[in-house]
């Protein structure tokens, strides 16, 4: 596919609503994931889970939100190790 035909998305911060939180947590639990990336889409009937990823990347998340997500993951892993 030629470059000019590709759609390009742009990451931006999104307020986490109770609906987003519940759907994301349910999707993660459905695949037995403790730390996963959940991709959601808006459909005619509301939010839909598009995919659940066992690997995530933060190249767009951190700049868009200003939140040190990789640092939070490390803190969580240290916490889990100490349990």
Helix content: 25-40%
Topology as H/E string? HEEHH
Corresponding CATH architecture: 2-Layer Sandwich
| Large-scale geometry | globular
The largest pleated sheet is described as: 2 strands, antiparallel
Distance between the termini: 49 Å
Output the CATH topology.
Answer: D-amino Acid Aminotransferase, Chain A, domain 1
Share of residues in strands: 15-25%
Strand order of the largest sheet: 1-2
C-alpha Rg (nearest Å): 15 Å
How many helical elements?
3
pLDDT averaged residue by residue: 89
Structural class: alpha+beta
Number of beta strands: 2
- The number of domains: 1
Describe the model.
This protein is an alpha+beta fold and 83 residues long. The protein has one domain (10-82): 2-Layer Sandwich (D-amino Acid Aminotransferase, Chain A, domain 1), CATH 3.30.470.20. It is built from 3 helices and 2 strands. The chain has helices spanning 18-30, 61-65, 69-82; strands at residues 37-43, 46-53. A two-stranded antiparallel ribbon has the order 1-2. It is globular and about 45 Å long.
In short:
The chain is of the alpha+beta class. Helix content is 39%, strand content 18%. A two-stranded antiparallel ribbon has the order 1-2.
Structural features:
83 residues, alpha+beta, D-amino Acid Aminotransferase, Chain A, domain 1, 2 strands
């Amino acid at each position: 596919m030629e470059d000019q035909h590709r759609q390009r998305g742009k990451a931006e911060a999104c307020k986490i609503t109770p609906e987003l939180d519940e759907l994301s947590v349910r999707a993660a639990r459905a695949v037995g994931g403790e730390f996963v990336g959940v991709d959601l889409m808006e459909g005619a009937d509301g939010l839909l889970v598009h995919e659940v990823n066992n690997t995530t990347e933060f190249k767009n998340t951190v700049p868009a939100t200003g939140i040190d997500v990789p640092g939070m993951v490390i803190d969580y892993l240290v916490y889990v190790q100490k349990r």
